[in-house]
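dude i think i finally got it to work??
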Amino acid sequence: MLFRQRAPARRTRAHPHESSWANYLEPWRTIEIASAVVPTVILSPHPDDAVLSLWHLLDGDGEVVVLNVFGGSPAGHHGDAWWDRLTGAADSVARVAERHAEDRAALAMAGREAVNLDFLDGQYRDAELPLEPVVDRIAQAAPEGLLLAPGALDRHRDHLIVRAAALALGARGREVGLYADVPHATVYGWPAWVSGEPPDPLLDPSVHWDAALAGTGISLRDLPADVHALTPEALDRKLAAVRAYRTQLPALEAQFGALGPEVLGREATWRLTP
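look at this
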């Protein structure tokens, strides 16, 4: 497969608290095959999803490619642009350009950059988006390597499409995994088996996850979870990157609650293919 665009070379940075779990992360980072580096490909529905959900990969030393699937400019769109209006934007084309600039600034803090595919965010569409063009475009744009797709654990329509596209590519033989798409995944908090905290007898967030995955044949309870607790230093870097999304944060926090360490300090992935 042609590698159309590659993330920039990473500067090596020492992480003082990383040594004890660096080997644990290695399978998710790079695989050396005949001197070629096979990247991890993050399928980010929108600018911000990769940073919110997978900072441990972006901030690590492995090769990572970020594909913002719904990264198209909405000139002449026919949707209601409800999220733009909610977040104070009168011009959706300008807002998308602004969001891309925010994403560049956030990813640059980890020495990364994104490839923006040209599909339109759901708020700019007035009809159902066919899945096959999304599958084909991701297949064309994504280099060989593990595809990490959002779990769509709150059933956001764009996240559902990206998840379905990744599962279709998995059926074609691609390596595929899911990630907890924060803050959608944490609308009821982290399940105890992710957080390591004692379970609340009156609240089981994983039930919400089960409902979101209904019909896929996937049960996250039955898969080994790679849970990553960010070090204090890594969390500080992530919080700084998240603050770059200044046009989005007020509405996200109004909808999902404060995006503090209790939410952003953990990240989780699940490999679906061996």
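DSSP finds twelve helices and nine strands in the chain.
im so relieved honestly
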